[in-house]
Amino acid sequence: MDIEEGGITVSVPEARDGASEGTGGGVFFNPTQELNRDVTVATLRAYREREPRAASYLDAMAASGVRGVRAAAEGYDITCADVDADAVDLAAANLDANGLDGEAVHRDVNALLYDEGPFDVVDLDPYGTPIPFADAAFANGRNLICVTATDTAPLCGAHLQSGIRKYGAVPRNTDYHPEMGLRTLVSALVRTAARYDKAARPILSHVSRHYARTYLELESGARAADDCLEALGHVDGCEDCLWRSPTRGRIADPVDACPECGSDRVLTAGPIWLGPVADPDFARAVRREVTDDMGEAKRARKLLGTVAREIDTPTHYDQHRLYKQWGEPAIGMDEFVERLRAAGHEASRAHYRGTAVKSTASIPEMREAVLGTDAD
Ligand SMILES: C[S@@+](CC[C@H](N)C(=O)[O-])C[C@H]1O[C@@H](n2cnc3c(N)ncnc32)[C@H](O)[C@@H]1O
């Protein structure tokens, strides 16, 4: 069937249960990833202003080619790659049908990157973890690496051993799992880039539905890579009172007991990325590039606006859980954030959950700020 997305028309297989599967069910297409693709296109537009030399775009896992076709329509010099021959034929036909130039190649993207790289922008959009493709992408990417990861259970510590194996980090299953997942992913990608003497800094990231997406800008040089690694660290967190303590530095020095409530239920996660996951100015620039021909324009603008305003903390608190702990009825989120700010604390909402609040205040400070009474 034909679908319209962001001003282009592409032929895609019939979707079953939201997404068509690559194996046995034809070429993969997931209509619910339109938000991801709309944000990608807006990012490619904004990135051109930031780095005018960026011209080539590798849609490394093209499937129907919808992402690459949309990038071609933006003027990028695109290559669509896939190991599925049907996908390559479909991507080529979709480029053709839209009158756009570009290549569709039947290649394993790891081999392609080493044989044909470098590419200015490399977009990894695999099934599950991107890690099998990360070395080739960072070794052969020049400016921007865009990465989707859908294996949220390993990333956020719900499947601990799998997370440790794939990401070379200890992710913990905390109640701030969107941050945990995203920062475990970025940690692994930053360490991968460092192997090639490159700094990889996230300039935009979001956690939406069941995936994390991050855009990492590259800077070549051993010193830049070293500086970037300084933003890795670990977080100690108490499962009982929700106390959390992020510490930068590569060597974890975990605590045995919570300094706030004395509980020994303290979990240490790391190395995770403790630096910024987005550049607020770039997020605003991307937001300005969202256009009304995008099917998810409304959600994309809301998401990017919240990302731009989000404060830079590696954890968040769930407002309902805080009020439960305090034994008080919850107030509205905007009012909650306002009261924290009025008391002099940095505070914001988070883009991934309506009840998530980010703040530099400790829990006793938050309680004081919003209830006007200190913790017992
Ligand atoms: C999730 S789909 C990509 C969806 C697509 N980017 C979109 O926006 O609709 C993953 C694709 O990766 C392809 N793939 C898996 N391993 C690959 C490899 N080593 N090299 C190139 N493509 C690969 C699969 O055949 C599948 O088409």
From TrEMBL:
<keyword id="KW-0694">RNA-binding</keyword>
<dbReference type="InterPro" id="IPR022923">
    <property type="entry name" value="TRM1_arc_bac"/>
</dbReference>
<keyword id="KW-0820">tRNA-binding</keyword>
<feature type="region of interest" description="Disordered">
    <location>
        <begin position="1"/>
        <end position="29"/>
    </location>
</feature>
<feature type="binding site">
    <location>
        <position position="261"/>
    </location>
    <ligand>
        <name>Zn(2+)</name>
    </ligand>
</feature>
<dbReference type="GO" id="GO:0000049">
    <property type="term" value="F:tRNA binding"/>
</dbReference>
<feature type="binding site">
    <location>
        <position position="108"/>
    </location>
    <ligand>
        <name>S-adenosyl-L-methionine</name>
    </ligand>
</feature>
<feature type="binding site">
    <location>
        <position position="238"/>
    </location>
    <ligand>
        <name>Zn(2+)</name>
    </ligand>
</feature>
<feature type="binding site">
    <location>
        <position position="258"/>
    </location>
    <ligand>
        <name>Zn(2+)</name>
    </ligand>
</feature>
<dbReference type="InterPro" id="IPR029063">
    <property type="entry name" value="SAM-dependent_MTases_sf"/>
</dbReference>
<comment type="function">
    <text>Dimethylates a single guanine residue at position 26 of a number of tRNAs using S-adenosyl-L-methionine as donor of the methyl groups.</text>
</comment>
<protein>
    <recommendedName>
        <fullName>tRNA (guanine(26)-N(2))-dimethyltransferase</fullName>
        <ecNumber>2.1.1.216</ecNumber>
    </recommendedName>
</protein>
<feature type="binding site">
    <location>
        <position position="241"/>
    </location>
    <ligand>
        <name>Zn(2+)</name>
    </ligand>
</feature>
<dbReference type="GO" id="GO:0046872">
    <property type="term" value="F:metal ion binding"/>
</dbReference>
<feature type="binding site">
    <location>
        <position position="37"/>
    </location>
    <ligand>
        <name>S-adenosyl-L-methionine</name>
    </ligand>
</feature>
<keyword id="KW-0479">Metal-binding</keyword>
<keyword id="KW-0819">tRNA processing</keyword>
<dbReference type="GO" id="GO:0002940">
    <property type="term" value="P:tRNA N2-guanine methylation"/>
</dbReference>
<comment type="similarity">
    <text>Belongs to the class I-like SAM-binding methyltransferase superfamily. Trm1 family.</text>
</comment>
<keyword id="KW-0489">Methyltransferase</keyword>
<dbReference type="InterPro" id="IPR042296">
    <property type="entry name" value="tRNA_met_Trm1_C"/>
</dbReference>
<feature type="binding site">
    <location>
        <position position="82"/>
    </location>
    <ligand>
        <name>S-adenosyl-L-methionine</name>
    </ligand>
</feature>
<dbReference type="Pfam" id="PF02005">
    <property type="entry name" value="TRM"/>
</dbReference>
<keyword id="KW-0862">Zinc</keyword>
<dbReference type="InterPro" id="IPR002905">
    <property type="entry name" value="Trm1"/>
</dbReference>
<dbReference type="GO" id="GO:0160104">
    <property type="term" value="F:tRNA (guanine(26)-N2)-dimethyltransferase activity"/>
</dbReference>
<keyword id="KW-0949">S-adenosyl-L-methionine</keyword>
<keyword id="KW-0808">Transferase</keyword>
<feature type="binding site">
    <location>
        <position position="67"/>
    </location>
    <ligand>
        <name>S-adenosyl-L-methionine</name>
    </ligand>
</feature>
